[in-house]
Every structure is written in structure tokens, then in C-alpha cells.
Design goal:
Blueprint lengths: L3 H5 L11 H4 L12 H8 L9 H4 L7 H9 L3 H9 L5 H7 L21 H14 L15 E5 L3 H12 L3 E5 L8 H4 L8 H14 L2 E3 L10 H7 L2 E4 L5 E2 L12 E3 H8 L19 E5 L3 H12 L4 E5 L11 H10 L2 E3 L2 E8 L5 E14 L5 E5 L5 E4 L2 E4 L3 E2 L2 H4 L27 E3 L2 H4 L4 H20 L18
């Protein structure tokens, strides 16, 4: 047994990963993950605080000291099962959640040293369970006879489905695309979140009894009101998938993508494996990516792996204001992505064939903070300059797709088109309908969407247990989605 002084002397353990010059040319996952020896050494850094702040820092309130202690003891399967008491997607969260801004930010060890690597330990435990074929299927509560429809198979919908199926309810997920996973499958690249990890998490839910229907666009082939005729409750976790653009001259030139399309082609539709997968994608030599978030980093690093000679991130603030994870910015820099900061695009120009050949930009300086708390970028007069590019990706955020909301009367929206929902329960203005994740908050993190799914699951369970039995409809109302 180590005392706290000895624990504090253990340095934070680096996770082995591919070298930058190697990984920039492949789509394999960048980090290799902890070995059992490294995981136990890192777990030994935890002080096992009597009043751990890390639990409150986690949106799904994982018992972090408990699972870390199990790793320290060498009980890796026990650690994975402890994680799954609160988190149905630990292998995903261990890879893409911003632990540095949540659980690790309040870690007591982090006051004087680097915090315990909670996310890396979570990844290790989940991978160990999956890799050793010991995925535990918990016992479900007796059937309640209640049915819940979940629109969207992103992290919020998957979390809610996992919670409610264990409580004895029947759950069906409706996914618009041809594979479940939402942003986890179409938005995050293979080198950051391998698709077999997401598929394994989805398979786990299916083994629990969750039904998943793909190619099912709710709002088009079927409305929320029609779902309510067949189901006792509906959860809307459809994300924020409407691309935002720069709205500058020349943006309609060929060779300019939204990040949504660019990453969906590369990730879900595997364009990087063309012609093995028949999904073409433009492969620029001189690529410009606009934005400073994780999506911008993903797009830039994808372009590099698709053969670009030069990739630039163009961002109108400084690195300190970038919303991307520090780790993602560092990985991009190590791989050779160039950063043009305090720079804003004011127009594109192209050739006679209608293809983009360059961008006109303007230098910026920072003024007073805006409503986001970040200093507002202010144009510097007369600072215009041009950059060449043959491919551009706009990654400045996404809005609420109106397809479902415009076909759902009685559903209150805010001024930006997002669904209004109680932050503690997920209840909307429409009876029997809950919502959570990016369709409520705008683009946010995986773990926050999962937290919203968990809160909504608890609220829906309470609602269902106090709701009278629903009479079966006299005739089926739901159309079968194309397979």
C-alpha cells in the first residue's frame, strides 16, 4: 500500500501512440492505449479522496475513485463493470470526452501536479473487457409493458435506451442514416474513434434488447405524433446536423465542403478506402479548414491523411480561445497542420471551371469579451491578403435541422430553432415527448449529451410508471423504413 506522499511522486503516465510522421499517413487509431502495467501505475496516483470532487465533475456521475481503485488492484473486469453502472459507452467516452474540462479539472492531485488520467483509465478498462470477451450483460427489471421510441442513435439516445431497457421498458431507436451511432459514427474520424468501438457499444445495447431501425427519417416517413400513437413516450436525440456556412462571396464554388459532408463521406461512407468503398471525395493538395473546434481539427487531420501537401487551419481568434481539446490541437500540430490565427475569410476566388483556387483573408485583433466569454475578433483595416487553396472545409458549427420540428405541432423551439426542454428532466412542451443533446443545447460534447439522456431516462421512467395502460391502435400506423 502506498501512502499519499508516495502516490504524489508518481508522474502521470504517457499513453503510447503512433509517431506523427507515421500516423499522418494512415487512419489507424493514434494512441495505442495503456498496458496493464501503465494502467495500474497511473491508477496508483489516485488519492482515494474521502470527498471526491471528480464524481461531481462527471456529467453521468461515474464512481471514479471506485473504478480507479479496481484497476490499481488489478481487477480490470471489475473496473469495467463499475463504469457501466453509470456509463453505457465507456470505450467511447474514454477516447473523445473532454476530461480535462470535467472530472480531471477538479482532481485533487491536479492542484499541485498533473491530474489522474481518468479518461485514459476509463478507456483501458472498457477495452480490456471487450478484448477479453468478458462483456457483462446485467439483469433487466421485469417487463413493464411500456414502449419508448428514441429518435437518433447518438450518445444521448444510446444512453437513454440503455437505461430504460434495464428498467424493463421496450425501447426502439430510429436512426436516419444506414448505421447507428450518430455523430460517433459519421462525425469522428477512425483515427480518433475506431468504428468497431462504436459498433461494439451498439451491439451491447442490442444484446440488452434494444431494437434499432436504420434508414428511418422521422419527420419524413413518419411524424412524432404518429410515433405517439404506438409508443408511450418519445425521446428526441437527433443532434444538430444543419451545416453553418461563412456567407462570403464565392462560397458556392466547387471544392468547398461543409464539415458535415466532408467527414460523413470520409467516416461513415469510408471514402478514404475508395475504390474499395464506392464513395468518392475530393482530395485537395492545398487545403484550408475554417474553425477552431474539434470538428475543424478532425477535418484538417483527415485532409492530411487523404494526401494533402499542405493543410491550414484558419481561425479568427487566438489559440487560447480555440474550443478544441488541447490534445487534438497538439496532435494536429505534430502531424504538420499549419495554424493561421487571428485570420478571417472574406471571400473565395476560383478558375474558369468553377473550382476554388484561393481565399481572401483579413487580419483580426481581439477586443472585449462577447456573450461566449471569449474576446471578440475585430477586423484590422487594410490587412487583406490572399492564400491559395484547391479544397476548403467549413467547420464553424452546425444548427438545428428543421425537418422533424416543422412536422411536430406543439413543440416549443427557441429563437435558433433548438427544442426547448427542461435541463433537469428533458421534458418538452409536448406531452409524452422528451429531448436532449445537441438538438437542445446546440453543438456540445458527447458526455453532456449522455448526461441529458440519463436525466431524460429517469424522468421518462417516472412518467411511465404512473401512466395508464395505452390501448393498442386499431390498425398499424407506422410505415416500414427502407432497408
Amino acid at each position: 500500500m502506498l501512502d499519499n506522499k508516495e502516490r504524489m511522486k508518481i508522474p502521470r503516465q504517457r499513453m503510447p501512440e503512433q509517431e506523427p510522421e507515421v500516423r499522418a499517413k494512415n487512419f489507424s487509431e493514434v494512441p495505442f492505449g495503456y498496458t496493464p502495467e501503465l494502467a495500474r501505475l497511473e491508477a496508483n496516483r489516485c488519492l482515494q479522496c474521502k470527498k471526491p470532487k471528480c464524481i461531481a465533475g462527471c456529467p453521468v456521475e461515474i464512481d471514479i475513485p471506485a473504478f480507479v481503485q479496481l484497476i490499481s488492484d488489478g481487477d480490470f473486469i471489475g473496473a469495467a463493470r463499475k463504469l457501466k453502472e453509470r456509463n453505457s459507452l465507456p470505450a467511447v467516452c474514454g477516447r473523445v470526452c473532454p476530461q480535462e474540462d470535467q472530472c480531471e479539472m477538479v482532481c485533487v492531485v491536479g492542484r499541485k501536479h498533473e491530474p489522474v488520467a481518468i479518461g485514459r483509465l476509463e478507456r483501458f478498462a472498457a477495452d480490456w473487457e471487450r478484448g477479453n470477451g468478458e462483456v457483462f450483460i446485467p439483469e433487466k427489471a421485469p417487463s413493464t409493458g411500456k414502449r419508448v421510441a428514441v429518435v437518433g442513435s447518438g450518445p444521448g439516445g444510446l444512453t437513454l435506451a440503455g437505461d430504460l431497457i434495464l428498467k424493463g421498458h421496450e425501447v426502439t431507436i430510429f436512426e436516419a442514416l444506414h448505421k447507428p451511432g450518430g455523430v460517433l459514427i459519421y462525425g469522428i474520424p477512425e483515427f480518433r474513434l475506431p468504428k468497431d468501438i462504436v459498433q461494439a457499444e451498439v451491439n451491447y445495447l442490442e444484446r440488452l434488447g434494444v431494437k434499432i431501425e436504420v434508414n428511418c427519417v422521422i419527420g419524413k416517413i413518419e411524424t412524432v405524433d404518429e410515433l405517439l400513437q404506438e409508443y408511450d413516450a418519445v425521446f428526441l436525440g437527433l443532434g444538430a446536423g444543419l451545416p453553418q456556412f461563412l456567407n462570403v462571396p464565392g462560397e458556392n464554388l466547387s471544392g468547398i465542403y461543409s464539415a458535415n459532408e466532408y467527414l460523413t463521406r470520409a467516416n461513415l461512407m469510408k471514402a478514404y478506402l475508395f475504390p474499395e468503398y464506392d464513395t468518392p471525395i475530393a482530395r485537395g493538395r492545398n487545403v484550408a479548414v475554417f474553425g477552431g473546434g474539434n470538428v475543424a481539427m478532425d477535418a484538417a487531420r483527415t485532409a492530411l491523411r487523404l494526401g494533402a501537401d499542405e493543410v491550414r487551419i484558419i481561425y479568427r481568434r487566438t489559440r487560447a480561445e480555440m474550443p478544441a481539446r488541447i490534445e487534438e490541437i497538439q496532435h494536429a500540430e505534430e502531424e504538420g497542420v499549419q495554424f493561421h490565427l487571428l485570420t478571417a475569410p472574406i471571400g473565395f476566388f476560383g478558375n474558369d471551371d468553377g473550382w476554388v483556387t484561393g481565399i481572401e483573408c483579413l487580419r483580426m485583433e481581439l477586443g472585449e469579451p462577447d456573450e461566449s466569454g471569449r474576446r471578440r475578433p475585430i477586423p484590422i483595416k487594410g490587412s487583406e491578403f490572399k492564400l491559395e487553396c484547391d479544397l476548403a472545409v467549413v467547420a464553424i458549427g452546425a444548427g438545428a435541422n428543421p425537418l422533424l420540428t416543422t412536422t411536430t405541432p406543439g413543440l416549443e423551439l427557441n429563437q435558433r430553432g433548438y427544442i426547448v426542454a427542461d435541463p433537469e428532466t428533458g421534458k418538452t412542451s409536448k406531452e409524452g415527448v422528451w429531448a436532449g443533446g445537441d438538438i437542445v443545447t446546440g453543438s456540445a460534447t458527447v458526455i453532456l449529451a449522455m448526461g441529458a439522456g440519463r436525466k431524460a431516462a429517469n424522468s421518462i421512467h417516472e412518467y411511465l410508471m404512473n401512466k395508464p395502460e395505452k390501448r393498442a391502435p386499431s390498425s398499424p400506423t407506422r410505415m416500414t423504413a427502407a432497408r
